Amino acid sequence: MFNFEKISTTRFYTAPTIERVVEFSPPDVDMSNVAKILSLAVDAKCVGVESGDGYAQISGRTNFRLVYLDKDGTVRGVDYNADFTLRADGEFDEGDNVQCDIIVTESDVEAADTLTLTAVLEICASTIKRDEIEMLTSADDCYAIDKEVYMPSLIGSKTVTVPFDDDKNVGAQIDSVLGLSTVCITKQALATDDGATVKATIFARVTFTQDGEIKTYDFAIPVEEELTLDGAKTTDAVKVHAIVRSAKVVLQGVTDDNVIKVEGELTLRVTVTRCEKRQIVGNLYMLTNEVELERNSMDLKCFDGCGYFMQGVSGTAILGDNKPRAISVVALPYARCYTTNYYVTEDNRIVAEGVVNTDIIYTDENGYNSVRAEVPFSVSVASEIPFSKDLKVHCDVQNVTASVRKDREFDIVMDIAITACGFSPLTIEYISGVTVGEEKEQNTCALSMYVASVGDNMLDVCSALTAMPEDVTAQNPDLVFPLQGGEKIIYFRRLA
User: Fold this and answer.
1) What are the two backbone dihedrals, phi and then psi, of residue 421, each rounded to the nearest 5 degrees?
2) Quick one: fold of 441-492?
3) I need a labelling partner for 148 at 20 to 30 A (CA). Which of 20, 47, 391, 427 fits?
4) What 3-state class would DSSP assign to 458?
């Protein structure tokens, strides 16, 4: 009589953010040969996640790229890696496909008797969980009021590794490579029939010395990947998690005619979801028996999709009085972006706020020097996607340049890449159980009348008159639900 069905749904789960301080002191540094620190770039990435019941065990690696002057005035660049592990407690189960995002919020270097490198990380673990909800979908031999609900559903997920490379002939001999900074910016992600297409660009900045001078070269490496995901439709929403898994600089060519080659691997995790419309029973009525309904609810989110935007930002950096006046900017080896706040306005504009950190290497009367620049930003972009108030925004720096405006002031110009992903919160209310009670006392009157209240539906009328809907409708064909209140509904019974 009562047909219950286990319906699969998708739940987006994010564990509480964890802050982790990574401190590393290289054992092989001769501090007597370190004259001046010019720059410290820090990246951190997740190298592995194992999920268990109630936790996710995360393995990560922090990369420190240090540029400094030795006592002879030669520019040096060194790389250090510091591995770390941590446990993220949360609603995880063994076998969950857990995604880990790591953001570097602060970094520092202390060069005294020993060299100490420090990074402050924010680590966030998330997963997409499949749940099954048993709910009443149809009922026989009674009056059932159907209703439509939207259920988020995971269509498919796939992780691929994409190689990338590009090269540049510099027409001279490179003395040494000081550092490599990379970031992947997603430009577009669309679902196709039985698949998805992702377009992205890897921005790489190589800092090197040539004839004893510090120089940089920027690469913009396009990536386009088509993936097969059975069941996907063009109307589905696509979420992309892109991370540069590995990258290195290879010097090629011949003496006095070097070629800089950047090569590596990009990991793309592509997830396709859909909000599917399902029909379930919202209420029911039995003519012969009392009915007790067990109701439940579940809070879910439908993934609306992501929008990708670009906005130019400018700022300044000022030298302290303890430093000589700047002559010219030489290099910005890296730029790190930290998103602090975001929201969507009433007119569907996305506002993102954050801070960009970079080290400006410049020349003064004594040679090379540097200053740490911290540029706050607030950008606003119009979106064609009607995002809900539940929004997640991530910002990256696509490009950054600086110039000397005054002898103690720098102009900084950058492009901020904004990824905005929207979620629509929804609550699913459903019938999880039905108990048939005692038989109803049947009305033996030949004629009944019911005066409707405002908002009454057919079930209200049937319950009051102890009648079935088809009989009420047949005798009162002009009824329009929901009722306005005051309607007089007449019901004639055929008595035995």
Assistant:
1) -115, 130
2) Membrane-bound Lytic Murein Transglycosylase D; Chain A (3.10.350)
3) 391
4) helix
